[in-house]
Amino acid sequence: MNNDRYTGPFKDHIWRHVDLKQAVGYKYETDAAHLARFDRFTLENYPGAMTLTKEMVLDWCSKKAHDTQANQLSRASIIRQFGLYLDSVGVAAYVIPKRYYPKEMPYVPYIYSADELQRFFAETDRCRYCYECPDRHLIMPLFFRMIYTCGLRVSEARLLTVGDVDLEQGILSVHHSKKDNSRLVPMSDELVERCRG
């Protein structure tokens, strides 16, 4: 792994921590990106840091105006793992306790009525041509129908390529989904016809 992306006071430790996680089989790409932001944060705010202090950790984990509780919890979890790594290699580190921040209220899904769904899809069909995104008016009606009728996650639909859509068999190939799984998803005849169109 190239460690040039880290330039702050913990750069070598972050690189080794990420390298270790990936060596034992974790993809660790999203967390590595979070640690790259932590690296820039420490370079700007604590450039001479030799240890990971409680002040630094709580400053990094503090809730920003745009944050959800889940974002804050994610930052705390990643920096906790990094703190445990530092401690294991003999660097003094504050390890933020588990459940230091309260969890957000559990998500309660909203079930759309048939009328609401009909109005929603009617609006997606009204999507107009836009100079900055010339194919948007063609993609959006299909994008939301794929999510709804095939049970896709938003990221799964967003990452589909033309090659992942088999219009002969009516099958979507979803790659590198949650936990790096792949799967085949059948499409309805109506959706296949819309895709062909």
What do you see in this structure?
- β2 and β3 form a beta hairpin.
- The chain has helices at residues 11-23, 29-45, 54-61, 69-88, 114-125, 136-150, 154-158, 189-196; strands spanning 165-166, 171-174, 183-186.
- Strands 1-2-3 form a 3-stranded antiparallel β-sheet, with no helix packed on it.
- With 197 residues, the protein is mostly helical.
- The chain is elongated, with a radius of gyration of 22 Å.
Short description:
By secondary structure, the protein is mostly helical. It has eight helices and three strands; from the N terminus they run αααααααβββα.
Q: What series of H and E elements makes up the topology?
A: HHHHHHHEEEH
The 3D shape can be described as elongated
In percent, how much strand structure appears in the residues? 5-15%
Gyration radius over CA: 22 Å
What characterizes the major β-sheet? 3 strands, antiparallel
Count every helix, treating DSSP H or I runs of 4 or more residues as helices: 8
- Helical residues, percent: 40-55%
The CA-CA distance between the termini, in Å, is: 44 Å
Strand order of the largest sheet: 1-2-3
Low-pLDDT sequence parts? none
Total number of β-strand segments? 3
Q: Roughly what is the average pLDDT, rounded to an integer?
A: 92
Structural class computed from helices and strand pairing: mainly alpha
